[in-house]
Write a structure and sequence with these properties.
Blueprint: E1 3-7, H1 10-13, H2 32-35, H3 38-43, H4 45-58, H5 66-78, E2 82-86, H6 92-96, E3 101-103, E4 106-113, E5 119-121, E6 140-144, H7 154-163, E7 166-170, H8 182-188, E8 192-197, E9 209-212, H9 215-227
The protein binds adenosine-5-diphosphoribose.
């Protein structure tokens, strides 16, 4: 059985990583458009750098939770029949042991050079304009896909959705496209679809089945039931 799992901020919530759409509509005190658009970066690069630098260093304070570990166990058993597509820019899937992970919205631990367009692994601050390790130009920005930019790996994701028997969405509000449209794409190609989320997502009606509760409980239970079959 080929499985595609889409994850969002909700899977990392129990690790202590804040989700995007809190009750006050702010992302760690910022309006999304002030820190997650190319226009914001052009206008206030220092503000944007400080925001992502703080989030990158905050990664050192958090650990993968039971949901990340359960997906890593599933990969151990399914191998290349499982693909995790994440909207998250944290590294918690990898730290739990998953290796087949596509970061469609980029990664905090990566920098993108606006000079040579190359991506480099990056784990320290960017605010002081360090030179690109590849071309030497001091034009590194967070390697994060902002609103108005095209997500990474769309061809591979589309191919996996086309061949999936099961599509599972975990911890995402279903508010941001193209990820919010994956359920309809997978279903139209013949996959069964399952939502695991704290509450019904915006697209909950598109799923063949939905279970609501914390990912740290729902995901291990789902994985164990699959592995025991
Ligand atoms: N377990 C499961 N789900 C949870 C939990 C939890 N412990 N806590 C929160 N959730 C759910 C919320 O109910 C919500 O539906 O996770 C979802 C998180 O939604 P968002 O904060 O909107 O995050 P996400 O859907 O990943 O955002 C998508 O939007 O801002 C952009 O690029 C950014 O990747 C991000 C994209």
């Amino acid at each position: 059985m080929r499985i595609v799992v889409l994850t969002g901020a909700g899977i990392s919530a129990e690790s202590g990583v804040p989700t995007f759409r809190d009750a006050d509509g702010l992302w760690e005190g910022h309006r999304v458009e002030d820190v997650a658009t190319p226009q914001a970066y052009d206008l206030k690069p220092t503000t944007v750098h400080r925001f992502y630098d703080a989030r990158r260093s905050a990664l050192l304070q958090v650990e993968p939770n039971q949901a990340h570990h359960a997906l890593a166990r599933l990969e151990e058993s399914c191998g290349d029949q499982l693909l995790v597509v994440t909207q998250n820019i944290d590294d918690l899937h990898e730290r739990a042991g998953s290796s087949r992970v596509l970061h469609m919205h980029g990664e905090l631990n990566s920098a993108l050079c606006r000079g040579c367009r190359q991506r480099s692994r990056w784990t320290s601050d960017l605010v002081d304009h360090p030179p690109c390790p590849r071309c030497g130009v001091s034009e590194l920005r967070p390697d994060v896909v902002w609103f108005g930019e095209i997500p990474y790996e769309m061809d591979r994701i589309h191919d996996a959705l086309l061949r999936a028997d099961l599509f599972v969405s975990i911890g995402t509000a279903g508010a941001v496209y193209p990820a919010a449209g994956f359920v309809q794409a997978a279903a139209s190609y013949g996959a069964r679809t399952l939502e695991l989320n704290l509450q019904p997502s915006e697209g909950t009606d598109y799923f063949s089945e939905a279970r609501h509760g914390p990912a740290g409980e729902l995901v291990p239970a789902w994985v164990e039931s699959l592995l025991s079959r």
